[in-house]
Each structure stands twice: as C-alpha cells, then as structure tokens.
Write a structure and sequence with these properties.
The chain is of the alpha/beta class. It has a single domain, classed as 3-Layer(aba) Sandwich (Collagenase (Catalytic Domain)), CATH 3.40.390.30. Helices cover 48% and strands 16% of the residues. The protein is built from 6 helices and 4 strands. It has helices spanning 16-32, 52-59, 88-98, 102-117, 126-142, 144-147; strands spanning 2-8, 43-49, 70-74, 82-86. A 4-stranded mixed β-sheet has the order 1-2-4-3, with helices on both faces. A hairpin with a 7-residue loop joins strand 3 (70-74) and strand 4 (82-86). It is globular and about 35 Å long. The mean pLDDT is 88.
Length: 151
C-alpha cells in the first residue's frame, strides 16, 4: 500500500487530486523494483509545498546555500518512507527557464523527489544520474495527458 499526503501550505492553484494520483502511481511502480534497500514499507510520503525562505532553511541540512526546487528526506520509518519539500516559486522559475508549462515542471520535480526517496542519486555518479533522469522523463511522458489539467 502507498499513500501520498499533500500539504499545500503555499495555497498554490493545482489540481491536487491529479498530482496525488500521479505520485501514488510512481510510488507503486518504484515499489515493485525497490531493490536498493531492505525497506519493506509502508510506502507513504508527505509532499509539502513551502516558500523560498523555508526551502533555504531546509537546504542547510544538505550543507547548501539558498533555495532549491525540491528536497527529499528519506526516513524509512514504520509510518513514512519520507518527505518531499517543493518550492512552487522555484518550480515556476524553472518552468519559465525551460519553457515548459508550470504543471509539467511541478510533476517533474515531484517525480524527481520520489526517485530520491527510492535511492536514486544524481550528484555522486554520472551513470546513476543518467538512469535517474531517464526514468524521471519517462514518467513525465507517461502522464503527459494529465499535465494540462494539473494547473
């Protein structure tokens, strides 16, 4: 069983039910192939939308400065696989920079955060980064029909 609880603290205008559906589908798919640890579940996550100021604070846990679009914190407890923090303001900046719709970029960063919770990393190993980003973009393509309805 998997569940994605979404906390829209920034009151952004999103179709939360579609985003929740997408996140839970990605979790279910990744759970099938989760060989990166002995964790057996539950596969519940919290997805929290936060301000740039809050994201800057959370980014200190990575020994990094400033804000970022998404951060994942893996707990693997009896109740929670982890939490994903997303800064909608940074996601909006990304969407403008990459010239993609906001909803598409929001889905992309949420999927990115989920992949981190399942052990994927793009900072330490180039080959691992390639696998992670290919998987991320495959999911974005899979849900492309839903992206127009998300924001």
């Amino acid at each position: 069983m998997q569940k994605c609880e979404i906390f829209n603290e920034q009151n952004i205008s999103l179709n939360i039910s579609i985003l929740k559906f997408i996140c839970e589908r990605v979790i279910a798919e990744e759970r099938k192939n989760f060989s990166r640890s002995s964790f057996k579940g539950p596969y519940n996550i919290n997805l929290v939308f936060v301000s740039k100021k809050d994201m800057t604070y959370y980014n200190h846990y990575r020994n990094a400065e400033g804000s970022t679009d998404v951060l994942s914190f893996r707990y693997a407890t009896s109740e929670l696989l982890g939490e994903i923090y997303v800064c909608p303001e940074c996601v909006k900046e990304n969407s403008e920079y990459f010239k993609v719709p906001f909803g598409e970029e929001m889905v992309r960063v949420c999927i990115h955060g989920i992949l981190h919770l399942f052990g994927y990393d793009h900072e330490e190993d180039e080959d691992e980064a390639k696998v992670m980003f290919e998987k991320q973009e495959a999911y974005v393509r899979e849900f492309s029909d839903s992206l127009d309805n998300i924001s």
